[in-house]
Amino acid sequence: MKPLLQKLTETFSPSGYEAAIREVIRAEVQPFADEIRVDALGNLIVRKGKGGKRIMVAAHMDEIGLIATHIDENGFVRFTTIGGVYPNLLLGSRVRFLGGAAGVIHTEPTDKPGDTPSVDKMFIDTGASNRAECPVKIGEVAAFERPFLDLGKRMVAKSMDDRVGCLVAIEALRAIRETPHELYFVFTTQEEVGTRGAETSAYGIDPHLGFSLDVTAWGDTPGRLGKNFEMALGKGPAIKIKDGGMLSDPRIVNWMIDTAEAQGIPYQREVLLGGSTDARSMQLVRAGVPVGCVSIPCRYVHSPSEMVDVEDVQNAIRLVTELLSQPVEI
Ligand code: CO
Ligand code: ZN
Asked: If you measure from the C-alpha of residue 306 to the centroid of ligand 2, how many angstroms do you get, rounded to a whole number?
């Protein structure tokens, strides 16, 4: 599991530029798929089984990133963000452009040293001395450059959001021997800019029900303990009841909880105040779809070093495998 997660998280594919990660995932799922197709928005749609309920499982394969907006005469790259990038996590970060160039992020001097400037005061230094030398053109995109870190019980990487969800989908697909359903594992595009790939793929699949696989926030580090968000690493996957964009269908929530309890899989009940997932788009497509979400608790979401717990990942795989192997009445 760790080598595959390393490969997934060390691939650079910001929203709208998912070609590289799509090929990595395609190679993994090929042996277990009955059919693979790619739709117009680049979603990788993997079918297994035929004729039962159409169940859509969405894990987004894009990641947050940056896009070059201006190259100045000294070769410094100005940029804006793709998705929810926090300015305070950018300074000192290293980024990798899809064309291969790398650079470091710094800022114009601020009024007080240590202040977090806005993104328009920052620049990427690629080592170039002038515009002609700069290896980056306007419109080129970049992602955080940060190697996978194995801490034993815990794993840290950039783009754990949502490559860990992709891993859970791949491993569940691998583990499912028989299914009474027509399963559609969708590795979606452009989630970080507004769950766009989920919208078109759900329309195309027209599922009877479904859920997303994504990370959620955390409540178990200093300053967060005992506040209004409970999720903790190591206490099991979270079954989403509500987030900032969606109320899960109670029938889906009960299906997930009943399955976890019957199999002795630890789980957490999730109410997330802000943010949402692909399930939001899936729920509202066509005439509506009953949906939920299995979340992997993740510390430091949308930073270059996002952390998950190994057992949470394993238990998420078990839960998803069980959900999709048994008949369901919804
Ligand atoms: Co995200
Ligand atoms: Zn996500």
From this structure: 11
CA distance 68 to 137: 7
Residues with a beta carbon under 5 angstroms from ion ligand 2: 161-162, 214
Q: Is 191 a catalytic residue?
A: yes
Rounded to the nearest whole angstrom, what is the distance from the C-alpha of residue 162 to the centroid of ligand 2?
5
CATH class of this structure's domain 2-63+158-325: alpha beta
Q: Among residues 191, 199, 306, 322, which one is catalytic?
A: 191
Q: CB-side exposure of 76: number of CA atoms within 13 Å?
A: 12
Run of H or E residues at 330: none
pLDDT category at 189 given cuts 50, 70, 90 is very high
Where are the chain's structural domains? 2-63+158-325, 65-144
The tens digit of pLDDT for each residue in 100-149 reads: 999 999 999 999 988 999 999 999 999 999 999 999 999 999 999 999 99
